[in-house]
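A.,

Following up on our hallway conversation. Structure tokens first:
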């Protein structure tokens, strides 16, 4: 009897010292036992939690609740948010006696709130980084296009300057070659007057 009591005390001590939140619920999903970690996370005492439905504390999918109640196969772990804003990583294990009669379900939950916050911060940071990259790419495209336009504009200006220079020189040359020499023409027309 002493050994049994000692084992029970050790189990109770272990049950209340683990970081994980542990609930034992009956076939109607009423809390029949919970550890200190769960009570503290709910800011309640053990006694205030006993007899209440476990899904009063967690935002649960109705199909999942029904599956637990009917002892159907469960996913190994799921993420659940509590009504006080905490995130839990929850696992469910139905317990049976030697005759395969249902005794209770053990619900174990690990608080992953900080992990979820970090995850959300990373998502937000990634989104912000993508926005900055998009802005930078837009600016780069605009700057490169502007630079290319400036290069093309300079080329066009150079072409026009070259054309104008060639055009002016050609006109002067052509004019000078075709324009008559007035003095020569006078000499040819009036040789006598010129000699005089």
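Then the amino acids I'd put at each of the 196 positions:
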């Amino acid at each position: 009897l002493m050994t049994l009591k000692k084992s029970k005390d050790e189990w109770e001590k272990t049950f209340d010292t683990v970081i994980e939140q542990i609930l034992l619920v009956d076939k109607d999903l009423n809390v029949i036992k919970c550890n200190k970690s769960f009570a503290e996370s709910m800011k309640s005492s053990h006694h205030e939690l006993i007899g209440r439905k476990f899904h009063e504390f967690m935002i649960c999918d109705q199909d999942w609740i029904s599956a637990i109640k009917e002892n159907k196969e469960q996913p190994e772990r799921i993420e659940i948010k509590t009504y006080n804003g905490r995130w839990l990583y929850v696992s469910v294990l139905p317990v049976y006696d030697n005759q395969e009669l249902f005794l209770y379900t053990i619900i174990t939950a690990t608080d992953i709130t900080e992990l979820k916050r970090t995850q959300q911060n990373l998502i937000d940071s990634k989104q912000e980084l993508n926005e900055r990259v998009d802005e930078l790419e837009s600016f780069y495209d605009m700057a490169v296009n502007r630079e290319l336009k400036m290069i093309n504009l300079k080329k066009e200006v150079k072409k026009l300057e070259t054309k104008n220079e060639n055009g002016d020189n050609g006109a002067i040359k052509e004019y000078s070659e075709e324009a008559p020499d007035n003095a020569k023409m006078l000499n040819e027309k009036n040789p006598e007057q010129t000699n005089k």
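The longest strand covers residues 87-96. Curious whether your intuition agrees with the design.

B.
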